[in-house]
TrEMBL record, chain A:
GO terms under biological process: ATP synthesis coupled electron transport
Cellular component, GO annotation: plasma membrane
Family to which the UniProt record says this protein belongs: Belongs to the CPA3 antiporters (TC 2.A.63) subunit D family.
Subcellular location: Cell membrane; Membrane
InterPro entries tied to this protein: CPA3_Na-H_Antiporter_D, NADH_UbQ_OxRdtase, ND/Mrp_TM
GO molecular function terms attached to this record: NADH dehydrogenase (ubiquinone) activity
Topology relative to the membrane: Multi-pass membrane protein
Domain NADH:quinone oxidoreductase/Mrp antiporter transmembrane: 129-430
Record key words, sorted: Cell membrane, Membrane, Transmembrane, Transmembrane helix
Protein name from the UniProt record: Multisubunit sodium/proton antiporter MrpD subunit
Organism: Allonocardiopsis opalescens
Transmembrane intervals: 70-97, 117-150, 162-186, 206-231, 238-259, 271-292, 299-320, 332-356, 377-395, 415-439, 468-487
Classification via Pfam families: Proton_antipo_M
UniProtKB/TrEMBL annotation, chain B:
Key words of the record: Cell membrane, Membrane, Transmembrane, Transmembrane helix
Listed transmembrane segments: 43-62, 68-87, 99-122, 142-171
Na+/H+ antiporter MnhB subunit-related protein domain segment(s): 41-163
Matches recorded under Pfam families: MnhB
Principal place of residence: membrane
Protein name: Multisubunit Na+/H+ antiporter MnhB subunit
Superkingdom of origin organism: Bacteria
Subcellular location(s) per record: Cell membrane
Family: Belongs to the CPA3 antiporters (TC 2.A.63) subunit B family.
Membrane topology label: Multi-pass membrane protein
GO-annotated cellular components: plasma membrane
Amino acid sequence: MTVLVALPFLLPLLGAAVTLLISRWPRVQRAASLLTLAAVTANAGLLLAETADGTVISSQAGGWPAPLGITLVADPLSALLVLVSSVVLLIVLLYAIGQDVGGLSRGNPDVFHPVYLVLTAGVGLSFVAGDLFNLFVGFEVTLTASYALITQAPTRERTRASMIYTVVSLISSILFLTGIALVYAATGTVNMADIADRLATVPGDLRNVLGLFFLVVFGIKAAVVPMHFWLPDSYPIAITRISAIFAALLTKVAVYAIIRTQTLLFSRDDITDVLLVFAIVTMLVGILGALVQDDVNRVLSFALVSHIGYMIFGLGLVGVPGGHDDAGVAGLTGVIVYLVHHIVVQATLFLVAGLIRQYVGNTSLRSIRGLASVSPALALFFFLPAMSLAGLPPMSGFVAKLALFQAGLEQGGPLAYAGVAAGVATSVLTLIAIFRIWVRGFWGTPSQAIVAAQSALSSGTGRFGIRWMTATTGLMVATGIAVALLAGPLTEIGTVAARELISGEAYRTAVMSDSVVAP
Amino acid sequence: MAQDDERVPAVPGPPDDWEAPRERWLSTVVRPAFGPRSMLLEVVARMLIPAILVFSVYLLVAGHNRPGGGFAGGLVASMAFVLRYVAGGRYELAAGIPARPPVILALGLLLSGGTAGAPLLFGEPILRTHTWHFELPVFGEVHLLSALFFEIGVYLIVVGLVLSVVAALGARMEAEEEETRAWGEGEVR
């Protein structure tokens, strides 16, 4: 059973090595890549099946006991996120393969496949890391892979964007490392479960500073306003498969890190107000930014920033002294459901933007027109996740937002009410931003260039490529609908995970003394 | 003035029967990356590289108990290849490495990942080290750890990575520079 905890990063690393060795045979390379990700997904499914009831599984690398060695640990939250991210990675890989086979991408598959799997390994390691330093390693593996991926099919703009991205990521990594050093100086350990115990003896002010420090570190990576400026300048520029994965996963890994550190390590101190203020500002600034963009990808990037605010809002409902524990659990459950919903929906929307790019050549709102008559499937595949993003029933976004708003109202207090109001306003504004894309891009008569591009794409290998890409986008849309249909079980797992996160008992016991702790 | 020059050469050359040294210190026709070739550097490279490589292997093996390890060993070994590149240019670098850098990197990753994951097959945690003791004729008692294979993998990854960097930032740019110069000369002619 403890094997399952090690495989989310070990399998993709081995897969990366194999795909690097066989890069001369593109078909074999694609097959190896797919096989690896399928195995990772299956493993994640098993891991979630084991942990869904609140069981926490830990494994000590090399057999070194807990506070000394490298700890890998999976609780319901990590297992759920590993599963969702590997499903999304798998579908985006299918999309990318279709694009490559159809000759519709200028990316370099020799580089893409190994580095993509390394990115998978980094994401997996971040989710199962049981100590701060390995969390850092997981982030770095992910980021190093992302530096290589963001400059796929290099152009002047991509190189410029990747410079911003690299510099900001490096700065935040240096801060992260500094934070680990400070925590180590204060507690003498980097194992998260151990830190959680030892922080009790650390003076409250110092603990507060450390907590806020980590909030800033992960806030940069998660693009929380006012640390979001780099995201809309870098994500939209990369090629489709890359921006889809970045938008879906990289910021969510940081949100996961915020949840983990703020619940497990810094739960004794009340920074609820700070979180709620960050959340409200992030929601509003992000979506107001989205309203004035004239490029689909940039609208989606600003919407991404804005919706990070919802997750921070839910986390801000936890741990209010004198507040309702139930409201905290409900808020955290909402965050977990929101994470799952948002990973899938963001990936879908960026894949749709990639299809638009195939037809139009770019994603500027000035040049797209009449896409609904060019490709009805494309219109449908944009419409469904967009409605989900705005939070209209019966889509997954509605379920997630409803859970968060209910928790906010239950918690009460001026900031919680303000947060709910900002959340509702953001939903409405998201709807407006989506309708701008819909009205300008999908209605009307398509221009000559778009019709020409469509007829060019309806023959030869391009036809196979575009059909395959549309089909995989449809698969991602179906995944989004499945999230909505499975909202019941998902909320159950979310509640179990939220209770587990707030008490932290099982996690600490599993890491420090026993390898498997049932609830 | 011209007649004076004919009678007394400005720089006395070697006698006609004098033979220039023909030893090749490096394995290819030397074309340093930039500037003229330096015999001194070639000789030093020729003498130092084997010693550096042996030292890197020492670091690799010693790393279990003393300072060193796969990472340090790999860095030292890649310095040998960098020296060879600086002295002899990109053809010399290509002649000196056993496989393409990505292949070295991939093999290292496979070896490291495989060693890290092998204990999982026996129900042990990842990265668990296994120890073998046995007698060898010359070495005496040998204390072999499975961690050594992990370290060898790291060594190969580091060498592959540094060589990739040298290939991308050195050799590739050098080739582009040569193309530009050849094109420039063609224009002049």
